[in-house]
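Appendix B. One record, verbatim.
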Amino acid sequence: MADESNIRIDWTTCDRRGLCAELLPELISLDEWGFPVVRAGGVPPELMKHARRAAAACPVLALHLEPVRPH
């Protein structure tokens, strides 16, 4: 599917605010230091709208959606 995406975190930019985990708890949790932990497997189609919202809402723009590359 052309719309499949993976979530990527820019670790040099992320400042552990946790908004991504609040907006997309189905795919992102926080570790003990407050950094996001992304569940493996990419973004399911039914969560793409929420994933885009989380990426756009990140205060430091550290959350990115990247298209899945075919093998």
